[in-house]
Design brief:
Elements lengths: L12 E5 L4 H12 L3 E6 L18 E5 L5 H8 L4 E4 L6 H6 L1 H21 L4 E7 L22 H20 L2 E7 L2 E2 L12 H10 L5 E3 L5 E2 L2 E2 H12 L8 E5 L5 E2 H12 L6 E3 L14 H7 L7 H15 L1
Helix pairs in contact: 1-7, 2-4, 4-5, 6-8, 6-10
Bound molecules: nicotinamide-adenine-dinucleotide.
């Protein structure tokens, strides 16, 4: 269960791209606490220096402010690295619909640079963030690897392209790549602000301030909301996965199904507030329901998530209470 007993060779070096973001900073924190070295590469475009400020005095930690769109930066960052955890990308389906050209350069070009830099530097494992959005409009639930539909956004296309490039880097060049299709991750340090913020931190912050959140659609949409510690576990287990499991993408979720309206009322209850939501239009590029079959990751990566949704939500609420 979990990742606490995992062991890597002494002096292992991890490169976390997007390490100043939500998921990346959680990865940096856990890996440093386990006693390994972490290099964090981030251009601070959507991430924040304050997410990594607490590591700055750790001798095992190095921060590189840089852009994965620059191959030279990626090459420099990969020198002497054992494991790459490539999280750097721009998220948000609606924003990608507004700016497809940028998404292609950042999310596809950037990841391709990182694959190339990892290959040239003989990195042991290349683990990267993909997304449940690659399932597009395929109607079958739960989502299963190999049953992908028509893509609904440039963001989804960038993640699908990353997966295809990563597979090629495994088959052509022997680089062990592992794609992790995250399903709606939430937890400490997820940004609650801005037009493209994820619902859970956004609702928590608004409700804590006595504001009225808006639910897009009728609130009856469902997602496999996944606590961030489970995603950390998946990344670390992928680093230790066998070569036979490389060149593949894996669903990373809890394997549950939560309805947005229920989450809303769980948050109001936990915060002790009595505020009814506003309802707005559906968002373009969104699907109504999504949940994951996680049996492939269990079988081939040994993924066995510890944190169910309710436990994760209560930990997340505690964190925002203490930190907002
Ligand atoms: N949060 C989720 O629910 C979710 C779901 C599916 C997939 N993902 C993927 O997981 C990864 C991490 O997402 P997150 O939620 O932590 O987002 P985030 O925005 O908090 O983190 C992304 C980080 O990448 C950095 N970055 C972006 N472009 C960069 C570039 N060109 N060079 C260097 N750094 C760059 C940003 O500054 C930021 O710190 C992303 O690849 C995202 O697409 C997230």
């Amino acid at each position: 269960m979990g990742y606490k007993d995992l062991r890597f060779p002494d002096n292992s070096v991890f490169l976390v791209t997007g390490g100043a973001g939500f998921i990346g900073s959680n990865l940096c924190e856990v890996i440093l606490a386990a006693g390994y070295r972490v290099r964090c590469l981030d251009d601070l475009s959507t991430g924040k220096r304050e997410n990594v400020a607490m590591f700055e005095h750790d001798p095992g930690y190095t921060f590189i402010e840089g852009d994965i769109k620059e191959l030279d930066t990626c090459m420099r960052a990969c020198e002497g690295v054992d494991y790459v955890l490539n999280q750097a990308a721009w998220g948000s389906v609606p924003r990608s619909i507004e700016m497809p050209l940028f998404y292609e350069k950042n999310n596809i070009g950037g990841t391709l640079n990182m694959l190339e830099a990892a290959r040239q530097n003989n990195v042991k494992k290349f683990v990267y963030a993909s997304s449940s959005s690659v399932y597009g409009d395929h109607p079958v639930l739960p989502k299963r690897e190999g049953q992908e539909g028509r893509l609904l956004s440039p963001y989804a296309l960038t993640k699908r392209a990353d997966e295809e490039f990563a597979k090629l880097y495994t088959s052509l060049y022997g680089l062990d790549t592992y794609g992790l299709r995250y399903f709606n991750v939430f937890g400490r340090r997820q940004d609650p602000d801005g037009a493209y913020a994820a619902v859970i931190p956004k609702f928590i912050k608004q409700l804590m301030r006595g504001e009225t959140p808006t639910i897009n659609g009728d609130g009856k949409q469902s997602r496999d909301f996944t606590y961030v510690e489970n995603v950390v576990e998946a990344n670390l287990k992928a680093c230790l996965a066998p070569h036979e499991a490389a060149g593949e993408a894996y669903n990373i979720a809890y394997g549950g199904r939560e309805y947005l309206i229920d989450i809303y009322y769980s948050i109001t209850k936990a915060l002790g507030v009595d505020i009814e939501p506003n309802y707005g239009p559906d968002r373009a590029g969104d699907i109504k329901h999504s949940n994951a079959d996680i049996s492939k990751a269990k079988r081939l990566l040994g993924y066995d998530p510890d944190y169910d949704f309710d436990t994760g939500l209560s930990l997340a609420i505690d964190w925002y209470r203490a930190n907002l």
